[in-house]
Structures are given as C-alpha cells and as structure tokens.
Design a protein that fits this description.
By secondary structure, the chain is α/β, with parallel strands linked by helices. It has seven helices and nine strands. Strands 1, 2, 3, 4, 5, 6, 7, 8 and 9 form a nine-stranded mixed β-sheet that branches. Bound molecules: guanosine-5'-triphosphate and magnesium ion. The site of magnesium ion (MG) has 4 residues, from helix 1.
Length: 285
Amino acid sequence: MAYVNYVTKNMAIKIVYYGPGLSGKTTNLRYIYFKLEPAYRGELVCLETAAERTFFFDLLPIKAGLIKDFKVHFQLLTVPGQVFYEASRKSVLKGADGLVFVADSQLPLLEADMESFDGLRKNCLEQGIDLNRVPLVFQYNKRDLPNLIPVETLNRLLNSRHCPYVEAEAINGRGVLETLKEVARLTVPVVKASIFDEKLPAAEESMETAPGTAQMLSTSELKPAAGESGSKKKTGKKSEEAQIEFVKPGDESPFPTTKIKVQSIEDIEQEIARLSKEFGLTKKK
Ligand SMILES: Nc1nc2c(ncn2[C@@H]2O[C@H](COP(=O)(O)OP(=O)(O)OP(=O)(O)O)[C@@H](O)[C@H]2O)c(=O)[nH]1
Ligand SMILES: [Mg+2]
C-alpha cells in the first residue's frame, strides 16, 4: 500500500527486489544510485554484513514525477537472499506495491531461484499480497556468465503469469533501468487506481502484460514535477506524455563506493525517521 500525505501531496510507492542470495539485487540499487542525478535520488542505505551480504535491506528513495498533483517517490528496497534471513524478508515485503524478482541465470542456481520464488509466494500470502495480481517483473540476471539457464526455461518455471521479464547484467548495468521502468510502468496505474478509487485500465487489471524486453517508461499517468521537467521530458511525443528519465547521460562511473554502512537498529530507525520527515509521509487513512 503506497504511503500518501494528502496535506503535503507526497506519495511513496514501495518496490521490493526479491530473489535468492547473490542474485544481484543490491547491485541493481547501486547501479541505479550511480546513474541518477543526486537531485532525483536520496542516499543509498545498505544494511550489510562485513562480507557485503544484505542482512536486513537496502533502501534507495528516488523521485519520479507527479501523479495528479502528488509528488511521487519510489522507495526501492531489496530483501536479503540468504535463507536464514526469512524474518527480514517478510518485514521488507510488507506493503509492497510492486515486485522485481531477480533470478540468478546460472544453471546450478536454478533450484535456489525456484526455492526463493516459492518463499516469495508464501511470504506474499502471509503479508496479504496477491502474487497473482501484484505488479511483478522478472529480471534474469548474470547473463554475462557461461552455463546459463535458457530464458524460456526460466519463464516456464517461474513466470507462469507471463509477467514482463528483462535479461540483465546488473554488474555492468545492462537491463537494470529497463527493469525499474517496467516495474514502475506496471505499478503506477495500480497505485493510482487504489488511491484515487479509479478503475484500472483492463491491461493492468488482469496484469497479463505480454512478456518481452522492457520499453522506456512512457505514460500519461506520470508527469514531471514542477521545476523538474527539463531532462525528464520526452521529446517528439505528445505534450501530455512524459517519461521518467533516470539516466544521467555519459555517466559511466563504477559503483563500489556508494553505500552507506549502517550497523545498528538505531541507525535504521533514524534513517526511516529522516526519510519520513523528508517526504512528509504518513500512512493512508
Ligand atoms: N558476473 C556477474 N556478477 C554479478 C552480476 N550482478 C551481480 N553480480 C555479482 O554478484 C555478487 C552478489 O551481488 P549482490 O548484488 O550483492 O547480490 P544480492 O542479491 O544483493 O545478495 P544478498 O544480499 O545476499 O541477497 C556480487 O559480487 C556482484 O558483483 C551480473 O550481472 N554478472
Ligand atoms: Mg543484497
């Protein structure tokens, strides 16, 4: 359920990256962080062990434009993939508006992918999320490596809903922004419909979006926020139509130094309080 503040006209949409350990969820967020201009994103908070494994979550807030006159932020979160962090996964999943399932494409990891997806199914059930309807995008990651599971197999075993899927190499950014745009494209109309009590367009209602490589997010649902239109506006399109332009052109920085390490629960609580204050967020009545 998106967080909405009707007074400050802010809205936060929660997107959770889920998947087995080491599939590349944190790498997705690091890449997005580096590609976005600072004006469009907050800090990347990585709660990880000394071995750089997520133990609670990573969080990256990004600004995305307007729905009606509400400023929209996406809160991108990752779950920890290691099996013993089940409690963290449940807690992070709570209230997710959209999901990205990051699968590891390496053949020996197929079982881990399937187990993780099974876990997602169970956890969604517990959290009251309908996995048959929630906006969901599959990212088949690590396509740069040898010994790959064919995409058709991944689709057959994991993606029975025929959700959009993206082949990715998160380590060098391939497919990362496409995944984000695809999940945003699916999620925004659903959130908008639930908040403004609108009827969903038929395609989103059934969520039977055809599989295929992601397109640039381009939707009349999202407009650039006032004063933020410059680089985000798509040229040569209908003037009403806008797109989220996450990429800072020409910025090819590698991304090993971006994370803020937060060690304690107090740090997490402080960070959440800071973000809530920044966005003026309260829960929807
Ligand atoms: N070759 C290759 N390596 C990748 C790719 N994406 C991520 N990695 C590497 O895989 C390792 C794990 O990546 P993370 O992003 O930390 O994985 P995670 O899913 O967040 O793992 P957990 O936090 O344990 O759940 C790192 O060494 C990454 O550099 C990819 O597309 N190709
Ligand atoms: Mg991680």
